[in-house]
Amino acid sequence: MTARPRRVGALLAGSVLAAGMALAGCGGGGGGSGHAGTTTTSGATRTTTTTTGTTTTTSAPAAAAGTWSPPVTVAAGADLSVVSCPLPGSCLVGSASGQSYRLSAGQPSALGPVGSAPAPQGGSYLTCTSATFCAAVPNLNEALVFNGTSWSAPTTIPAAQGFESVGCVGSSFCVAIDGEGNAFVFNGTSWSGNVGAWGAANQISCVSASFCVAAEGGPSVWDGRSWTQPNDADPQGQLNAVSCASTTFCVAVDSAGDVLTWNGTAFSAPAPVASEPPLSGSDASGLTGVSCPTPTFCRAVDTLGRVFGFDGVSWSAGTEIDRGHELSGISCPSVSYCVAVDRSGRAFVST
Predict the structure, then answer these.
(1) 63-350: CATH, from 2.30.42.10, 3.20.20.100, 2.130.10.10, 3.40.50.1000
(2) Whole-prediction pTM value?
């Protein structure tokens, strides 16, 4: 298979995983009423009751974005680019410089560099499936694993051309994709490949060894043997992240502020989530991370420091938790625990 060239798509104006984990209250909809000849609506979903000369439309409450802690400094000034929480209260955080940090019960500690090269720009190069297993693919052609205490020495994969993302199920299956669309599989002991993917990937979410979704220019689906790209998926911007709660429910988010939802067969058309007027006064927003531990619970974050919630029906308006900063990633191992990180070295916890 010829790897699909990277497609960036429409950029911003002005600017794990499921299978036992997912990488990962304010806001809500109100009601409305109308008089003869008028209809008033609000929110993402609605129920309409019609009487003689009157149409009344009420909105179902949008999903709240949760209650978030004040910022926790993980590494002052660091560009935190990825967070993976296999369990509530237990997370690993990676920076754009390739440093890793543990966040345990809200308390950060440094773990040291991941590999010997700078981390990929924009990719989710680190993911954890338990407190004692994480995998990372720093840039170039290195892969490492974490045993709960320290990172292994790098394993060199000569055929790789600049890894960008990795997704895992347990400790015996991972798949990583490089910048040329080359995919490599880890069986718990060694890496093998190449199984050509449709271009590079900013994030990979796996439910099992026979179902993964990778996202960047467009989503690609792994069935255990090969990668395919659904022709119906047409994001308006670059896909920055994806999270799958099951083989029939995934959410991908893009740089235009839209979400695309997988139903087991196809992806939906892009639906705007982060397109309402920003709270910070800026005129542009893009979704940078998403985490869905179940099909009825998702959290997404954007470049304007906002969190958006999904309740299985609708997305909430943005709740600003990090004014003036860009949230770069989020991980929710359960519906009662999420961690978001920003590009200023800080983390935010929702319980």
Answers:
(1) 2.130.10.10
(2) 0.81
